[in-house]
Amino acid sequence: MFPLKDNLRCLTFPTVTLSLIIVNILVFVLELTHQSNGTFRQFIMDYALVPTSLINAYSSGDPSAIGWTTFTMFSAMFMHGSIMHLLGNMLFLFVFGRAMEARMGWFGFLVFYLVSGVAAALIHIGSDPTSFVPMLGASGAISGVLGGYLILWPKAEIKAFVPPLFIVTIRAYWFLAVWFGLQLYPVLMTNGGSPGGVAYWAHIGGFVAGFIIAGVLRLYRPVSDVCYIPSDCDTDKDIDEWKGRR
User: Fold this and answer.
1) Which residue range is the domain that position 23 belongs to?
2) Is the pTM of this model over 0.85?
């Protein structure tokens, strides 16, 4: 399933969400230039996250190696292996990121996004610390956004495209439960592996991290009464009922 829109109205402009999308697109354009001049492989090896390189760097104690491999945990979040990889991730980020940014504020959301991405990377490394396969993509960080959305707006409505022809509207908790199940199933079926070159453990780790962080946020900072209302609320009664469900 691919999300198309939700029914939340965000009363703030999604500056960070759109900025992240733009940066991801620009980095992908940079990747294409490296493909055209034959330096793509080296670019990937330099800036994507390679688990064994990070483990070896920390084992060696070399400050420069530690610094660079740590940096790749962040740089890898903005790299993608294909145009479809990029477009799919940016669609999820746009649909679910806007409300998260409105709830957390631009700075809080940026920190949340990066922390979720790092958590996803660490879980991925822990799943196979000897891997030489580069990990790249915003999926881990965006998975954190999905986990946070689940705990903050489980009853929001998501309009989704179900290939090949169907468009459905379902509650966020159903959509995200199905999404999480699709990440967990391949791991369970391969005894903890990541089949098909997909970093499923990163998706799972990012989702759980985002869920926990948003849970703490909701516990100590209750949802505002004025920031988020569904776009189809036409009366005060509708709005009050929505707030009560949250």
Assistant:
1) 2-245
2) yes
